[in-house]
Amino acid sequence: MKKNFKLFCFGFGQVAKKFVENLIKNDFNFDLVTTNTSKTTVKKFKGKKHKSFFFKDREFDKNLIKELILSNKVLISISPKNKEDVTLRNFNKIFKKNKFDWVTYLSATSVYGDKKGKWVNEKIKPNPTSRRGKYRLKAESKWLECFKKFNLPVQIFRLSGIYSTKNNAINRLKKGALKIVKKKNHFFSRIHVDDIARVLTISVKKIKAGEIFNISDNYPCANIEIAKYAANLIKVKHPKEVKIQNIKNKMLIELYKDSKKVDNKKMKNFFKYKLKYPTYKEGLLAIKNQLI
Q: 73-99, pLDDT tens digit by residue?
């Protein structure tokens, strides 16, 4: 049977895997190619056999070029390295001469920076405060430049904080790694990996090139609210509160620089999407039930 398309995944982490899993569940007929940072090999994921090519920074298996050229759709989930997007740096000539019909770059809502707890949508000018946010914004601009100059059908998905059955407040509680950081008017937005995968799947048949979409749930809130809810779910003590000035983890400090509520109306309206997990409560309850 002839395949409908070939999907090339630069990076194959939790989002890419859940996306591919969702394509399989929805009976999409496709070939898969991925990259990894160890060695070129043949792998199997959810019963789907595929080539996985070595790609790390400036080094890569040259054989992946042929597979990329033969692909229809490309997902880029590799974060910037050394201040720049490594995928475009190495393969920009191929993307400029594109024959792709779907290219999605996974960015992050960290590009917005600190908005003092106010709402942000895709029309607001980004002003990142963190290094990662600045590098993400730079990468976004490079991909959108390819859209404007070479008509590359790229869309940008700005992901809020991702949680899943593997990475979530319940697991961090069990490990004693969940902290409640005291900071007034501090809001996070988040998104379950299942919802990201579902929106990606819809976008395979409905893409709007050159557009940016916030991928987030309906309910931004403070970390303390989630921590207490998770603790109540599994019937453990609430974690102790920590003053922000006492945090030593650099990534956590960077995370708490920004406070914003991410608006997801554009995503829901364009893709006609109803969230499976509209708030953290539905998401954590489902995770708790899966972990039992």
A: 999 999 999 889 999 999 999 999 878
CA distance to 4, 143, 161, 201, per residue, from 27 (Å): 11, 30, 29, 11
CA distance 145 to 43: 34
CATH fit for domain 5-164+191-217+261-276, picks 3.40.1010.10, 3.40.50.720, 3.30.70.2970, 1.10.287.110: 3.40.50.720
| Of residues 230, 86, 107, 119, the one with CA closest to residue 167 | 230
Closest of 44, 42, 95, 43 to residue 71, by C-alpha: 95
User: Quick check: pTM over 0.85?
Assistant: yes
Residue 166, classed as helix, strand or coil, is coil
Q: What tokens does 170 get?
A: 């319940």
Amino acid at 112: Y
89: helix, coil or strand?
helix
Nearest in space to 255 (alpha carbons), one of 110, 89, 68, 56: 110
Distance of alpha carbon 138 from alpha carbon 129, whole angstroms: 13
Q: Which of 142, 149, 156 is nearest to 96 (CA)?
A: 149
Radius of gyration of the chain (CA): 19
